[in-house]
Design brief:
The chain is mainly alpha-helical. It has one domain. The chain is built from 5 helices and 2 strands, in the order H-H-E-H-H-H-E. Strands 1-2 form a two-stranded antiparallel sheet. Helix 1 runs antiparallel to helix 2 and helix 4 runs antiparallel to helix 5.
Length: 131
């Protein structure tokens, strides 16, 4: 079922959304200042291409120890991300998710947009894992 949902997601907007995140990651990587956020943008892009059957969790929960992205530096990077555009990206995902949840068929896709909104708020120090 997750394969079918991922295929439908990919065809009906997931490809365009994932491609947009790849473009954002490339732009962040080109500007040396945006390099700390480029990895997070590429992680979100991979998640956006096929979100069904996967979830986003803190990287510290997986490794059991803190690293640069999960400590105070990661918190600072997430605050900067949130202030400079993360809230806007999350708001867009919430609006699309609500619009898709209006129909019964769109509910699974709307829920995926809500997951994307959560990771768009604070992507540094997160990991995407299978459910």
């Amino acid at each position: 079922m997750t394969l079918l949902l991922n295929i439908l997601w990919f065809i009906f907007g997931g490809f365009a959304a994932g491609l947009a995140w790849v473009l954002v990651g490339l732009i962040l990587a080109i500007t040396i200042v945006g390099l700390p956020w480029a990895g997070a943008a590429f992680r979100i892009a991979g998640f956006t291409f096929a979100p069904f059957g996967r979830q986003v969790i803190d990287r510290q929960a997986i490794t059991g120890r803190a690293d640069l992205g999960t400590g105070s530096l990661g918190f600072l990077l997430n605050v900067i991300w949130l202030l400079l555009g993360g809230w806007y990206i999350a708001l867009v995902h919430i609006v699309i998710g609500v619009a898709q949840c209006v129909t019964i068929i769109g509910i699974p896709f709307g829920l995926q947009h809500f997951k994307l909104a959560i990771i768009a708020l604070a992507p540094v120090g997160k990991a995407v894992v299978p459910v």
